[in-house]
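Replying to the earlier thread about multi-chain prediction with a worked example.

Input:
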Amino acid sequence: METIRLIIVAVGGQGNLLASKILGEAALLAGVPVKMSEIHGMAQRGGVVESAIVFGPAHSNLIADGEADLLLGFEPSETLRALNKCNPGTTVITNLAPLPPFTVAIGKGTYPDLDRLQTVIRAKTRQLIAFDAATLAKAAGSILSLNVVLLGALVQTGLLPVTAQQVQQAIRSKTKPDFVDLNLNALDKGMAAARKV
Amino acid sequence: MHKLLQNDPGARILLLGNEAIARGALEAGVAFATTYPGTPSSEISLNLFQIARESDLYFEYSTNEKVALEVAAGAANAGLRTLCIMKHVGVNVAADPLMTLAYVGVRGGLVLISADDPNMFSSQNEQDNRYYAKMAGLPMLEPSSVQEAKEMIGQAFELSEQLGEPVLLRTTTRINHSSAFVDFGLLRKPVTKGHFQKDPLNYVTVPAVSRKLHVKLLENLAKAEAISEQSPLNRVTGQGRWGVVCNGVSYNYVRDAVADLELTDKVAILRIGMSNPLPAAKIKTFLAGCDKVLVAEEGEPFLEEAVKALAQEAGLTLPIKGKGEGLFSRLYEFDPALVRGVLAAYFEVPYTPPTRLDLSGVPEMPARPPNLCAGCSHRATYYAIKQAARGMDTIYPTDIGCYTLGFLPPLSMGDFVICMGSSVSSACGFSRATDQKVVAFIGDSTFFHSGITGLINAVHNNHNFTLVILDNGTTAMTGHQPHPGVDMDALQMQGYHHVSIEAVVRAVGVEHLTVIKPFKVQKSIEQIKSALSHKGVSVIISQEICTLYARSLKTLKARPFQVSDRCKNHRTCISELACPAFYLEGEKVRIDANVCVGCAVCAQICPENAIVPVKAKG
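Result:
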């Protein structure tokens, strides 16, 4: 099988690490080797969390610049910041609900215009799937299910070597029992959103 | 039950590298573990801390790495299998006991984990700790994967007991913070009670004893080299006239590069898993079968220099390269594309690097630097000190912890930091060498770690500065580990004594001591002014619990504030405090009630008194 390389970027607290874990469990169910690496040193202090997930036969668990097949961004400006990981063949999925960094509030930076952000990413990569995952997460029952909404969109691309059923099973075994239904609902919403885009 | 305590051999579980290492120690029958927390090692000890509460394992957070290794040396010489865990710079602190513990040796296995941090994701330097093994004359093992990290702990304990020497196990961040599926083995029941056999002529390192022990160490090193020659940890895979010597995670990148470049019938790889002592004969044989060799290692040219020296001994003149222009750098970490590119260039094979995106036209992105949390007491302390020291020509030596982030604008409180404890001692130097007002910052855990000796120095030598001890009741930066000043009752843990920072400061002879509550802004400023005007050593203890820690203890009662209509947009709050609870709605300052915890510092400094509590819902 081919190696598939996925980068997930998020702001600390958005549930990036749980999303990686669910994908890892789904890969185990699919019998696909998986390796992950994450940088989360200052996540709780408002920093960026980046996970690299490599499915398939490769031994490396890092993804070099330009070598991601998929980029999943939990926050639009962070998706844009991670564009150096992409190449013209990369599929990009992003949440469109911004979490502006504090530098914007103190006038030390300007938040990028969301339309321009999408135009730029669309022009430079294979495809962009962009939608407001925060609204869908709230509709599913909790903003905390944002990570699973975005996983739904990721699965819907069909580019991962795991099926929706395997991801659902991983959600049942790896998320808190009280939240399983909510998360399954969130997954469906993410899949439906990606179908529409 | 803790997930790492499941006695379920054959189970395949997704684990973080650090969890795999903790599991490996349990499968090896570890009885005793000590540490001082530090990224990227912290989750190893965090798991063992939890596990000790439901098993026979003895675990302690020691006051610093030197203490941790000395405690471990005692336990191991009473016969217990002992693990000692620290980050790479922690080994600097523990270097003193390490060098002579190598002479004395151990009876029960002792494994010292050095978690190195190439690229400095969360460290002040990227030193390569393989040199410690060489300097001490001790064996060192280096895993290339998460699964191997788990297995290597057991191998390291075996090796330690076989040689009667401590064994170093070196990881890098990309092992510690990687996840993969790991196959569980059998848990081994630890031997938890030891007995120390007196033998002063082998344990008391007076010169006459040490002269003899150094001979023994060299004999052990020779035995270790024979083991290294036979060890499958140092292994050749593939065959061909081109050779690559590598270690750690570089091995993964090399294997992928050889496959990607379709060189499997041309390249032989020597993976070094035991990097001290190196298998000299194995390396010479490998070199003799090659026309050209590349050494792929992150960090310093440790293997490269050794391999070149061995080639000289063997009379081999083949080209051997590693670090250099167009090849590998000593800086930062590797990645698969970098290694692929260097392999292709060195062996002169065609290669098209990945198509990089043309990033022109991408709108500028606002930076997202880490920031002190909303409701962080450090922000309040820094603000108050800045006001109290207004107009003074100041130097602010700082230290290592969350509060180091105070060096960023707009607080800009932090001028100098080199290592744990350096705030206090460097303040001695700055204050003696200048006429500037020196105010040093140190956290509570760092004060216990290595601030006390500096403070005693300051008192004895009559230096002139103010030390601010930022006491937030926990080791916050690394994930809220306890330290000697922590109230262990809050963690429902019995059998500990609490060491009062205030009592320590008084006991070492500090004459001017003030305890402040930093969320009381005006009162704090007045108290700080008095401390700053004292000639000699003055100490301010700023007491307020870490807000994240309070949240995890479920003692945080958030009472969020809001900006009322009285706001005239001075923006003193935003521009002086930079609290992440603030945001702008158009041109208006707002407070995110989900982020604000209600420290009320902004409300106290607002010139219009426009920041008021969110009214309780009726």
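Chain A has a mean pLDDT of 94.

Feel free to reuse this layout for your own posts.
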